[in-house]
Every structure is written in structure tokens, then in C-alpha cells.
Write a structure and sequence with these properties.
The chain has helices spanning 2-5, 52-68, 88-102, 118-128, 143-146, 148-160, 180-191, 214-222, 281-289, 297-300, 303-312, 317-342, 346-368; strands at 15-21, 26-34, 40-47, 75-81, 108-112, 172-176, 195-201, 204-207, 234-236, 248-251, 270-272, 293-295. The chain is α/β, with parallel strands linked by helices and 369 residues long. The chain is globular, with a radius of gyration of 20 Å.
Length: 369
């Protein structure tokens, strides 16, 4: 007990729920971090090696992300300990068992995350009446399909340009993790004049200093093939994307992708955190001290949850993209201005800004709740 409560603070978590259903093969955790601003929104992640620590860190990131974006939602997260590549019928059964288990947790609204998608959220909705990131046929805005998070990353890049020595036109981009987030970030940045020079998935990294053929890479992924199948590609280990010779690095996969074993090799001058918690605070400080500008995860990758919140309120896809652009541009500028004026790291400035908003909501909740 003492060890767990040492992980809590004045913001949360409010609830940590462990779920087990041996018959369904379900082992899961739900962390509701803070609900001062409203019911928590946060994705459901499925992977064999997810942990309580990861879930708690991600839930806190969602609290800060939702507060920074000015959404009427708190932060939460859930993890399911299972292989997301299991047969579809088995996955549906597992997701429905999970949905049944969380049906009574009214202050948590699940959405898609790594290992789950809009179809999974459709199954959850049918069991609970409560989910975001739904298929269009169920009234949802398919955030992965429209590239909500990737678009938001490109907006953050534009807002960061005046604060750093990276010019988007001609910038060399490396992306670690070529899923929906990485793909759409690459497309949007290419439209702004940047070029993709390195990209990885779980099978490896391909690179070309002259620029990679983005359309060919996307076609490979659409056929469920690895980027390493690109004809004539210079293929190296997956982690090589992190240390690629580039101007902009976008980690867009698992937490802690930038770690003590590769951080010293980072060559990028601007990091846009497409993944949640892709580096520890200590590593971010080391990079900051080396002159690397980092736009923190809960600022740069907030497009998905902003889209989900618009969907939950009954908004349209066009409204979602407009809100994403407005909020991420405004918040990136505010965070980088605070960081510059106070002489602190962008994450410290972003955390201060978001925590101020959470505490304001908590104070109002105590007064009027």
C-alpha cells in the first residue's frame, strides 16, 4: 500500500482499478487520474507487456493533455495485457469482456490506442453506451483515418518554427513508428516542404538522406507489409530512426523510445513527441541542455483527444480539424513562450500551464460541485 500511495499527488490518481476475468482471459487496469473538469477520456492500450506504471503515467499525460487543450474532460487510461494480433473473433470477445467490466465506471470514457481501433470502440459502445473514436457508421469521427493526431503534430511544428533554428521547408524528418500518427505527420509535414529521410516500424528502419518515397511507404503499410520491404532501401535496426541524421525527430510509438542507450546519439534539433512519454524527464533535460527543442507529448499529440472530445459533444469532422488547429497552435506558442521567458524546459512550462488549469477546475468543483 505504501509503495502505491507514494505514486500519488495532489492531482491524482482518483481511482486505480484492476480487472481480471479468467474465463475470458482478461487482465486489465483502468486508471482514472483526475475528473475535476469532467469525465475522464483516455485510450485503451493492448499489449502483452503493459504495466500499472505505464498506465498511470499515460493517465497523468491525459489529465495534462485534456487540461492544456481546454477540454471538459479529465484524464484516464486503460491497458489490456494481451496480444493485439490475436484472431478477430477472440479479440472481439476480449474487448466485450473488458467493456462489460467497465460498464459501471461512468467517469471513464475509453477510446482507441495502440493495439485497439475504432472497431474495438464500436464493440465497447454496444456493451456500455460510452466510447469515443467510433466508426463513421456509428456517428464517430475516425481520428486515425483522418489523421487527427498527425495533423496536430504538423501544427505544433509550424508553431515551434519561430522558436528554434529549424525551418520546415527543406527540413529532414525522421519518424520512429509508422502507424497512423507517423504516417499522417509525414504527409502533413511533406505538404509544408519537409522531407522524410528515415522511418521505422517494428521490423526495422529505412533511410535515405535525399528523401524517401512516402507514397510507396504508405502503400506498403496498406498491404500490411513493413517499411523495410521498400525496394532498394538502406535498412538498419528499428532504433536507428531515433539517431538518424535529421532536423526533426518524431517518436510515434511506445513510451521510452528515447532512452539512456540512444539519447546521446540524437541528432535532431526539434523533437515533436507523437507518442506519449517517449522519454523520461531526465533524458528530456539532457537533450534540452544540448540545445534540442522538445514540444512535449501532451501538447504536440493532443489532436486525437481533441477530435474525440468534439465527437463526444456531437461535433462534425470539419469542426474537429479546425479545433485541433486552433488549440494546438495556441498551446504550443504559449508553452514555448513561457519556456523562453522563464528559462525553463518546454515540459516544465507545459506542465505548469496544464496543472494551473487542472487546479482551477478542482477549485471550482469544490466550490460548486
Amino acid at each position: 500500500m505504501t509503495e502505491f500511495f507514494s505514486l500519488t499527488d495532489d492531482l491524482g490518481p482518483a481511482k486505480v482499478i484492476h480487472i481480471s476475468n479468467a474465463e475470458a482471459g482478461l487482465k486489465a487496469i483502468v486508471v482514472i487520474d483526475n475528473i475535476a473538469a469532467g469525465p475522464s477520456i483516455g485510450g485503451t492500450r493492448m499489449a502483452p507487456d503493459v504495466t500499472l506504471d505505464e498506465c498511470m503515467r499515460l493517465a497523468r499525460a491525459m489529465t495534462l493533455k485534456n487540461a492544456a487543450a481546454g477540454l471538459p474532460h479529465g484524464g484516464g487510461k486503460s491497458v489490456i495485457m494481451a496480444d493485439p494480433d490475436m484472431p478477430a473473433a477472440q479479440k472481439e470477445g476480449l474487448m466485450r469482456a473488458f467493456a462489460d467490466a467497465i460498464a459501471g465506471i461512468a467517469d471513464y470514457i475509453p477510446g482507441p490506442d495502440m493495439g485497439t481501433n475504432e472497431v474495438c470502440m464500436g464493440w465497447v459502445l454496444s456493451e456500455t453506451g460510452r466510447a469515443v473514436g467510433l466508426p463513421r457508421v456509428l456517428g464517430g469521427i475516425p481520428l486515425d483515418e483522418i489523421g487527427a493526431t498527425g495533423y496536430g503534430i504538423s501544427v505544433a511544428a509550424q508553431a515551434a518554427e519561430p522558436f528554434c533554428d529549424v525551418t520546415l521547408k527543406g527540413a529532414r524528418v525522421a519518424i520512429q513508428g509508422f502507424g497512423a500518427v507517423g504516417t499522417h505527420a509525414a504527409l502533413c509535414l511533406q505538404d509544408l516542404g519537409a522531407k522524410l529521410v528515415a522511418v521505422s516500424d517494428s521490423h526495422g528502419t529505412v533511410r535515405n538522406p535525399e528523401g524517401l518515397p512516402l507514397a510507396d511507404l504508405i502503400a506498403l503499410k496498406q498491404r500490411h507489409r513493413s517499411v523495410t520491404a521498400l525496394p532498394g532501401a538502406d535498412t538498419v535496426a528499428e532504433e536507428a530512426a531515433i539517431t538518424a541524421d535529421c532536423d526533426i525527430l518524431i517518436p510515434a510509438a511506445r513510451p521510452d523510445a528515447i532512452h539512456p542507450g540512444n539519447a546521446a546519439g540524437v541528432k535532431a534539433r526539434l523533437i515533436l513527441e507523437g507518442a506519449n512519454i517517449p522519454a523520461s524527464a531526465e533524458i528530456e533535460k539532457d537533450l534540452h541542455d544540448r540545445g534540442v527543442m522538445i514540444v512535449p507529448d501532451f501538447i504536440a499529440n493532443a489532436g486525437g483527444v481533441i477530435c474525440a472530445a468534439v465527437e463526444y459533444q456531437g461535433g462534425l469532422e470539419s469542426q474537429a480539424m479546425q479545433v485541433i488547429g486552433d488549440k494546438i497552435a495556441l498551446n504550443t506558442r504559449e508553452v514555448l513562450t513561457r519556456a523562453r521567458d522563464k528559462g525553463v524546459m518546454p515540459r516544465d512550462a507545459a506542465t505548469e500551464m496544464a496543472a494551473e488549469r487542472v487546479k482551477q477546475a478542482m477549485a471550482l468543483q469544490r466550490r460548486f460541485g
